[in-house]
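BUG: 3D viewer hangs when loading the predicted structure for this chain

Environment: internal workstation, default settings.
Expected: structure renders.
Actual: progress bar stalls at 90%.

Input used:
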Amino acid sequence: MIPVHQLKAFTKQVFLKIGFSDADADLATTVLVQADLRGVDSHGVARLAGYVRLYDHGRLNPMPAIKVVHETPSTAVVDGDRGVGLVVGPKAMQIAIEKARVAGTGWVAVRNSNHFGIAGYHAMLALEHDMIGMTMTNAAPLVAPTFSLDKLLGTNPIAVAVPALTQPPFVADFASTAVAYGKMEILQRKGQEAPLGWAQDAQGQASTDSNPIKNGGALLPLGSDREHGSHKGYGLGAIVDIFSGVLSGANYGPWVPPFATAGFMAAQEGVGAGTGHFFGAMRIDAFRPANEFKQHMDNWIGAFRNARAVEGKQVLIPGDPERDWEAERGANGLPLIEPVMQSLRELAERFGIERLDG
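Structure tokens produced before the viewer hung:
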């Protein structure tokens, strides 16, 4: 168990060592560790070595000149200058919030970025402004659309954060696939098989291989197969790809560059610039008085919390599990599995940083 403050200090030092400014290192660290705090271990410090590999391969600019390249009163296109998405994302979301403050809603498409961590972090930035936040990003093609043998889409997550009055906010944050690839990586580190419905093999048959990509297979869309609604997951992933990539001028579909997972460094770039994201902020009082809306959100949440549940279960509101993890881990520290600890030891040795485990 690693105390949060120690993990943050270590992570910030790594970002500083590869040339981040102090402010950007702080921001990237906050976004990354927030994933671990909220129980999304696949997108936390387990990814730190991957960001360093992006830097090593010349695909991550530690000092990006992030700029707006096109805008209207309510929209903007941002070029991330190959910056890490952990930094580009929050800055683009702040632009969307400022647009919404003036125009009622703000929409920002981003190109030339990299992996941006958990989508929910960026969406939640809108909450303190009495706004609804929405974020999405495309990702490397690891996913076969329904009936396809080819990998054409990423896990392409969507997050929406909605404030309430006395209840905690509604925060939905999910991949458009049966599972995020990071959870496959966790199984790979543990040497475990994947549940049926997460992946297919090279012939398009259901597989329990936790590393299907290496063996010619693919991840499956949300729904897993046509009979269980995979065409809907495919549709969600396609929408994210179009908003994030085609609309922004980033790469899309099979051309989205891969994250720095070992063995997947080669990119088929050529139709756009880097990875794409999409951010939205909606000022609630552009639709109805904010307090009135939030009172009704309390009522909405209460109705679901009070729903009759299957024996031994509880009806949850999106965001509940993550809040529970954050409270528990914030108090007791973060559990890091041995393969992650080993990757952090290697970073410590490379950069001359004190190891987390002494």
